[in-house]
Amino acid sequence: MTLLLATLYQILQMLLVLALAPLLTGWVRLVKARLVGRRGPSVVQPYRDLLRLLRKEVVLARNASWLFRAVPYMMFTAIWLAAGLVPVFTTQLALAPTADLIALIALLGSARFFLALAGMDTGTSFGGIGSSREMMIAALAEPAMLMIVFSVAILVRSTSLAEIADFMLSGAVGLRISLALALIALVMVAIAENARIPIDNPATHLELTMVHEAMVLEYSGRHLALVEAASMLKMLLYMALIACVFAPWGMATAGSGVAAALGGVVVFVAKLAVGGTLLALFETSIAKMRVFRVGEFLGGALLLSLLGAIFLYVSRGV
Amino acid sequence: MGLVVSAIAFLFAVAVAGAAARRLPQASTVVYGGTAATCALIALWAALRLAEGGPDATLVLPVGLPWVQAHLRADALSAVFLIVVNLGGITASLFGWGYERAHHESHGGDQDGHKEGPVLPLYPLFLAGMNMVLIAADAFTFLLSWEFMSLASWLLVLSTHREPDTPKAARLYLLMASFGTACLLLAFGVLATAHGDYSFAAIRAHAPDAGAAALVVVLILLGAGSKAGLVPLHVWLPLAHPAAPSHVSALMSGVMTKVAVYAMIRVLFDLLGEPEWWWGGVTMGFGALTAVMGVLYALMQDDVKRLLAYSTVENIGAIAIALGLALVFKAAHTPVIAALALAAALLHVVNHSLFKSLLFFAAGAMLTATGSRDLNRLGGLIHRMPTTAVLALIGAAAISALPPLNGFVGEWLLFQAILNAPALSEWSLKIEIAVVGAALALATALAGACFVRLYGIAFLGRPRSRAAGEAVEVGRAMRLGMAVPAVLCVVLGVLPTPLIRLFEPALRLLVEAGPFDGRSYQPWFWLAPTSAIGNSYNGLIMLVVIALLSVVLVLGIHRKASDRVRWSIPWGCGFDGPDPAAVTQYTASSFGQPIRRAFGSTVFRARDHVDMPAPGDTRPARLSVTWTDPAWVVVVEPLARAVGWLAEKANRLQFLTIRRYLTLMFLALVVLLVMVAVTQR
Predict the structure, then answer these.
(1) Is the pLDDT of residue A24 over 50?
(2) Are residues B464 and B429 in the same domain?
(3) Which residues of A touch B595 (CB under 8 A)?
(4) Domain annotation covers residue B664
(5) Within an 8 Å CB–CB cutoff, is residue B449 touching chain A?
(6) In this complex, is the C-beta atom of B430 within 8 Å of any C-beta atom belonging to chain A?
(7) Nearest to B314 by CA among B267, B352, B358
(8) Are residues B474 and B369 in the same domain?
């Protein structure tokens, strides 16, 4: 019965993240537009964009290989699965024991690995620029992310996300310097990984500054729809991850009933709205940095997270 | 045990047959077929022994020095490494058979006979040497086998002596190999001094005192570490491994480094008895340095095989980190966690032997198809060599630790062990392990970038040379040789637990615990080792869910979306056409530039030089990259200068009169007698 319910919740969560991801992007765009004094498009515009892309034909480069056509599906699946692993409204998820936080990071890593390969497949210079810069960013963001995981896992004594959320919900953790450092580092990593200002600008197509957009420049039609949807899903994933570890309130736990789960959905949507507003505020108040400053930014994130982990290693016996 | 010894003897017979019949067209079939069959036999024997348990197989042969017989013994640890070595031997034989035939056809008859002739008899000898190291149970047999293995591989490197880089690589390899053996010789000398018995059983029974043990640890890290490629003793490895024919490179990089790892484990965990915590700390520190430096070197290489050799250095670093952790936890009397770390080490040994062999085979296939291993002359091979491209993609993804492949499982286990460090009592160790964890994470992420670069430049994009544009897929034997490790990479990633279970006797032998002790429910498709940190991973469910989601996605998209596809010319900044140089494409160096700039500018003093012609000048602009290798500057060159200086001083001894020589000999005799008198008292 528990397993059945957990499976049901799992399926519900997979569908929920899929449905909410474009809405979050639309919300961020809307708030940003209002902040700079524009009216901005409706919040449902991303859905329309995706549908429009799906209906369009695919234009492929003459020398594109099967990998180029397969990658949008592969990366979308990896990110979708990863988004399904982060507890958003309940910690009772069927897949929770299958993959822990380390596996989740590796899943995101696979999505990036294949997208970077796709960027190089057509043999144009833009794809190469995007791929090489993306891998440079990842080379710093991924270890920072793992050190954050170390901090959290040592505090909670588990690398499983469901257990982390349960533990944080129990309130046994209190305020900790390591957690504060981990939160700052996680926000920095999330900004870099989602190609947001000041690392990258999702709205630009200027060749000197593009990272993510350069990599997917050759995509069109349904492939582009998938790539875009995967990026939206990834932004939702990172917000859900931050919420799950640092603000898990309102989430249903084992044995708290279906009503609590439904309440969890409502609270999750509210958290996304707050997170999206904060992101828009941050993005409008800061300028984009040069690509080669990114190393310093992410190196800072790596050092902060390492410092947090060292504090815990020294202060705590398992 | 008799079976293994006869199998090794049979390898010698194959070598003789290969030498005798090397002009005949069937020679390579006989050699590679015989070697593969023998390796399969030994691997099967070892796997059965591990599964069945029972007493260790031992054998004493009345050969060697008159008063020292050759002791042979295969315990659980030997069996694990016998599987690794011979599995590598099987696939390398399969690939090598096709590889040599392909090169025979393309280069034609007699001229090629000179080139590949030496490979045939030496190849089985190399495998025999590695097998002998693993079953040796006394220091004399061990060192003899070790030297045999080194010399066989050295001669195999020399088989390509016509290529310009080979002589230098071979000379450096010979130097480093003798240095390594000298260190091992001293280490065993120290171990056996107290009792004068060189058999492992006697060494094990008499634990050395703290000072002697410390000396042995350092000597082993130097001796076995130089063979395995620990930074800064790695300098020979990226020169020598790529110089050999590709299937031999695969054996050297994928398998021979593992024999060095075996030597480390044998001495540090087995012969030296109870460890002290700093042994692990030192091993781990060098491991972390090796992992990060190895992958940074790899990111700057344009030669496919040299890149792979540097990546081996990185992976050896990861294995050394795991070994160091296991030592630390063993010294802290938490054997279950030590077993977890050691399981990670052994799993990574197997994993690396698989995907590194696979990638070296892929490099060999590229070399066969295009005649080049320079990344900047490859490109677009995914169209010309579809099977190789798929298999190499599996290898690249596995070595980049992507789930659900095997590389990820090893890394996952290692991180679980690192997470247990807060339970240790030494402060310095806790901080070190946190930093080592960060270094390992950094190395893993950089490895991802490194293999995106390798795969993206070699297989994707447009051909960068005429040869790459006209490449044809390699033969069936070579494809099969690549397919076997590729399939194993997937299987072990999805179902790692049975393999770890198979290794459990070895873990119990070395740290007296298994990684699953204390967990009651442990099905074979679930991985959840005992640890203070809750964890679990299931590659099988992950694979099934990924497959399921992909099917849902593909069906969903194709119901809704337009199916139309239009093929068109990609925008190449105005350049297009049949020019194979494809000047607007990213090259290997340009892909590495952001990372080179972020990491290499301090460590390697990497600099980009732009040669921009003046306005109106029509010559092309050039961008060149220079970098210096800190290992050469800091370690090798001072050492070479010191050796040169010493040799010059010693040179004087060659020009003495006979009277002085006699005096010197007399003095030496007196000193030796005094030493004997002092030590025997």
Answers:
(1) yes
(2) yes
(3) 132, 135-136, 139
(4) yes
(5) yes
(6) yes
(7) B352
(8) yes
